Amino acid sequence: MPTSQDCPASATTAVRGRRAANATTIADILDAAKEEFATHGFDGTTVDSICRRAGVSKQLLYYYFGSKSDLYSVILKEAAERTIVFIGSTQYDTMPPRDAVELFMVNMFAEFVERPQIAQMTIDEAQHNFVHVGSKSPLATVLRKLIDEVLGRIVERGRADGSFRADADADGLFWVIFSLVTTWFAHSPMVLLVSRTQEGRSLDAAAWQANSIGFVLAALGNQA
C-alpha cells in the first residue's frame, strides 16, 4: 500500500512530460494540499496556503499540478487508486458472508485511519456536487466496481445461504457502511462531546467501529 512519501502515478502525470518529477517535492505538495483541503475545504483553501505549508513556490506548484482544481482532482484520483486494493482482494470469497462484511468494514475503517483527510475531502466534494470528480472520474468508477464486484458478491452469497435478508442490496449496504465510517472521521468531535454527556458513557473510535459493525450485521439479518 503506498504511503504519503510515494509518488503516485496520478501525481507523475501532472508533470505533463516536461521533465522527471521531483518525488519529494510532489509528496510535500500533496501532503500539504490534503491537510489544507481537509481543514478548509476547496473554497477555503488557497494556493498560497498550500505553498506555505509545503515550503514551495507558487510557480513550482503550478508547474507540477497546473491549478488548485487540478491538484484537488489528483488527490481524489489517488484515493481511487488506493481503493483498488479492495477490488483486487479475494479474501472475502472464502469467508462466511457475515464475516466478510465485518472484514470489509474493518478494512474501510483502516483506510480512513491511514488517510483521514479523504473523508473530509469527500464530504466537501459532495457539497460541491462533485464538480471536481464527475460521473466519469476514476473515483466514481472504482466505487462502482467496489460495490458490484466485492460487496455485491458477498451480498449475493448471504442471500443464497439465508444469512442475509432476501431483500439485502449491495448499493444500500455500501452507502450505509460508508456513512457510518465517514461520520466518525468527519464528526467525531461532536460525537465525543455529546456521548460524554451521558454518565458512564465512553465512546471512542474502536467502540464506534464495533457499534457500526454490529448495527450493519443486525440489519442484514440473523446468522444462518
From TrEMBL:
Q: What are the alphabetically sorted keywords of the record?
A: DNA-binding
HTH tetR-type domain location is 23-83
Q: Which SUPFAM superfamilies match?
A: Homeodomain-like, Tetracyclin repressor-like, C-terminal domain
Q: Which residues bind DNA?
A: 46-65
One function term, GO molecular function aspect: DNA binding
Task: Write down the PANTHER family for this protein, in alphabetical order.
Answer: HTH-TYPE TRANSCRIPTIONAL REPRESSOR SCO4008, TRANSCRIPTIONAL REPRESSOR
Protein's recorded name: TetR/AcrR family transcriptional regulator
Q: In which organism is this protein found?
A: Sphingobium fontiphilum
